[in-house]
Write a structure and sequence with these properties.
The chain is an all-alpha fold. The chain has a domain of about 40 residues. Helix content is about 75%, strand content about 0%. Helix 2 crosses helix 4.
Length: about 100
């Protein structure tokens, strides 16, 4: 007589997962991660608008003799580097303001 092999049911998930404890923890972690993502995207958009607005103000009031947009259309590298450094400095200032 041939005996059939016994099958054991081994659960790869701990009993706490099946009871729903870890499921709720995973859900709360997901919600917190999603909230952090949305907050980061919001800060990014706000800092982008502030940076562009700062460049427009500097172009209008401080650099009256130089039209930055026209110089950028002419592929003036020095104006592009200046505009990029302004955006970088505005981003740094906003990031320090948001940390406090």
């Amino acid at each position: 007589m041939e005996s059939s092999p016994k099958t054991m049911s081994i659960s790869v998930f701990p009993s706490r997962l099946r009871s729903g404890i870890l499921d709720s923890m995973d859900f709360h972690f997901f919600v917190a991660s999603l909230a952090n993502l949305l907050l980061s995207i919001t800060y990014t958009v706000v800092s982008l608008f502030c940076g562009v607005y700062a460049i427009k103000l500097i172009d209008r009031f401080l650099l009256k003799k130089i039209d930055m947009e026209e110089e950028l259309k002419k592929n003036n590298i020095s104006v592009a580097i200046f505009a990029a450094s302004l955006l970088l400095f505005v981003a740094i200032i906003i990031s320090f303001g948001l940390r406090a």
